From TrEMBL:
GO terms for molecular function: aminopeptidase activity. InterPro entries: Aminopep_P_N, Creatin/AminoP/Spt16_N, Creatinase/aminopeptidase-like, Pept_M24, Peptidase_M24B_aminopep-P_CS, X-Pro_dipept-like. Belongs to the peptidase M24B family. Gene3D superfamilies: Creatinase/methionine aminopeptidase superfamily, Creatinase/prolidase N-terminal domain. It catalyses: Release of any N-terminal amino acid, including proline, that is linked to proline, even from a dipeptide or tripeptide. Transmembrane segments: none annotated. It comes from Larkinella insperata. This is Xaa-Pro aminopeptidase. It is an enzyme of class 3 (hydrolase).
Length: 431
């Protein structure tokens, strides 16, 4: 991996925190993600299972982590299985973790690090001492996958081999833990944000009429990778003019024209942690009066919404209050009628015509990170704040997005140093 090493104290603490949530005599099994094929002998790039990474720090394929805090033999309380390397693998794929390196990475003793092909031999010494087996699944509410994952295969295989155990869902426990960011995680998020800011500032001197969306994408990728990022935290959205009204526009193949606004939903990852930035900038370096008015309305909503990201608030209540602020701004822009808003169906508010997505989501190892919308906001949670106004009839879409860390003393805008005010954007583009 490109990123610098992460202290194994983070992963040791994460395992300890998980152990406190388990039922007595419980065993936990986590698998690395599959390497997905493309065509012929090709494959996609490897991306580690975030839960496995969260508990071990191991960023390598064919890894298995087994935890059994109550096992009577301490050798079987934390066990890590790694892909065994050889000279051929070293030649074709490069270095793989040794047992000593795995200990340094994870904090799991090298004495309980085995090779993956030894799994059955070692696991049989553990499983019959357990009453409960926690297995992992993707329980993100926005998950939609027709591909059978390694987790899904192993759930089926475990139930066939060990039918009399009590099976438990690991995902709710991981959602509970991962929602509260540890100090080391905040540091990694801040580094992803810092790299993202450098990329964005680079663009402000590059964008002008005639450049192509993909050229902007290339500038960002250059800046991100040169600073130890894998690259984009998610597929970049670089949307000029009417393209900005397509929420998940990914083609990035149009030429930027004078008078247009570019919506940039682009950010870097670092150490598997993700920033999530959106800015809207004028191709010519100057906004028109109408563009300024819409931009300022979005900025006003973002500032008011950010104030609500504090301990104790609830997800649905928060979004309802943000909707009221957006209604007022849309009325001021002449896009909504005050009297019609007063008579609207509360379950189908009129503002949704121009602002049809949520204001915030959890952020962390996943861009849309795991968490529970029914859990009140707590110190240590990190949310995006990303209102937008999309006026298809005008070919204008503006969205702004920052990343907010909640603390007991208020919130901290991790992107406070990234230009967002109209005057600042224009000044930097016209240096």
């Amino acid at each position: 991996m490109k990123y610098t090493s992460i202290s194994n104290e983070l992963f040791i603490r994460n395992r300890r925190r998980l152990a406190e949530l388990l039922k007595p005599k419980s065993l936990v099994v986590l698998h690395a993600n599959d390497i997905m094929p493309t065509n012929a002998d090709g494959s996609m790039g490897f991306r580690q299972s975030n839960d496995l990474f969260y508990l071990s720090g191991v960023d390598q394929e064919e890894t298995i982590l087994v935890l059994f805090p109550d096992h009577p033999d301490e050798r079987f309380r934390e066990v890590l299985f790694l892909r065994e390397t050889n000279e051929l693998i070293e030649i074709w794929e490069g270095h793989k973790l040794t047992k000593e390196e795995a200990e340094q990475t994870s904090g799991i003793s090298r004495k309980t690090v085995f090779w993956t092909h030894e799994f059955e031999r070692v696991f049989i010494q553990m499983v019959f001492e357990a009453e409960h087996i926690y297995l992992n699944t993707n329980e993100h509410t926005r998950n939609s996958s027709e591909v059978e994952t390694r987790d899904a295969r192993n759930i089926r295989q475990f139930r066939e081999k060990y039918p009399l155990h009590h099976y438990e869902r690991l995902a709710p426990l991981m959602h509970n833990l991962r929602a509260i960011k540890q100090p080391e995680e905040v540091t990694l998020l801040k580094e992803a944000v810092r790299i993202t800011e450098d990329g964005f500032r680079r663009l402000l001197g590059f964008v002008k009429p005639g450049v192509w969306e993909y050229e902007i994408e290339a500038e960002l990728l250059h800046e991100f990778v040169r600073q130890r990022s894998r690259g984009f935290a998610y597929e970049p959205i670089i949307a000029t003019g009417p393209n900005a009204c397509v929420l998940h526009y990914l083609q990035n193949n149009q030429q930027c024209q004078d008078g247009q606004v570019i919506l940039l939903d682009v950010a870097a990852e670092y150490g598997n942690y993700n920033a999530d930035l959106t800015r809207s900038i004028p191709v010519s370096g100057r906004f028109t009066d109408r563009q300024k008015a819409v931009y300022q309305a979005v900025l006003n909503v973002m500032k008011e919404a950010t104030k609500m990201l504090v301990p104790g608030n609830l997800w649905d209540e928060y979004h309802k209050e943000v909707g009221k602020v957006m209604e007022s701004e849309l009325i001021g822009l002449g896009l909504l009628d005050r009297h019609e808003v007063a008579k609207q169906d509360p379950d189908a508010p009129l503002y949704r015509k121009y602002f049809m997505h949520g204001t915030s989501h959890f952020l962390g190892l996943d861009v849309h990170d795991v968490g529970n919308k029914y859990r009140r906001f707590e110190s240590g949670m990190v949310f995006t704040c990303e209102p937008g106004i999309y006026i298809r009839q005008e070919g204008l879409g503006i969205r702004l997005e920052n990343n907010i860390l909640i603390t007991d003393d208020g919130n901290i805008d991790l992107m406070a140093s990234i230009p967002v005010e109209i005057e600042e954007i224009e000044d930097l583009m016209n240096k």
